[in-house]
Structure prediction request, 297 residues.
Amino acid sequence: MTTFNGGDASSTPPLVLDGGNAFSSFTAPEITVLDDDTLGPRVAVSFSTLAGGTQTIVVRRTAAGRTMPVRGGVNLFAVGGAAVLDQEVPFGVPVTYQAEQFSADGVSLGMTDPATVIVDTTDTWVSQPLNPSLALQVRVRVMSTETLAWESPGDTVWTQGDALGRTINGQRSGLKGVSLLLRLLHPADAATFDAMFGTYDTTFPAVLCIRTPPSVPLPAVLFWGCTTPKRLTSGANKLVQYQLDGSEVAPPAPGLVVPSLTRDDIDAAYPTRAARAAAYTSRLARDTDYKLAGLAG
Prediction:
């Protein structure tokens, strides 16, 4: 786990972003990179100091030329500080986090200072955006990225007297009509992959979040819509692959997510309420104790 504090007057290299100086902002977020073999790389973004009167914040992430709200960081209660766990952080590119602060009346109080981090990994991870605990490390088969297609919907028209036509089109789409092939690392992972599309008792959108390193010619964070995933099993070792015929789509609403750390997890870690209160110096410290995630089962 590596922590980047965004820079302040007491910052010292190498684990800070600007080295710290007398002019460093105290409103830049603290960034902590978390990584394990279960959920993959993710980033905890913590805002301990905000503008006076801040009631809520909206946290945004900018990477590879795109700015997007961080899932779970929309209208986030921020009295006394706030934190969000970004489980869709892209890999191998500079990622900048910043929050817009709002009063109780919904009036913008301005932006915090930004903080930037690079999550260095060569792995590929796929997850269900609305339930990031359903996550797997996979491999993208090279053959499925050899031909990629986009569409700029429109028409070419010829007017009388012109030798050449004119193309009139709308905005270019994301990837469209592509067949991605993902290979699981372990055959037993198939149950988790299947669950990303829902079960007989649960319903999820048929959208996956696929995060790849820069060496893979796909968007760093790709939301892939596929309504008919195909499981392909072959060989004596039961190699399992998934063929995902689909297109790049918009992510599900960023305010929707199943939290990784719940109050039940925190309660399960301590025998009494007094013991829980004694373990933390602030609400923010309690709410960012991500090592307890999943403890309640």
User: Anything to note?
Assistant: The radius of gyration is 22 Å. The longest helix spans residues 273-279.
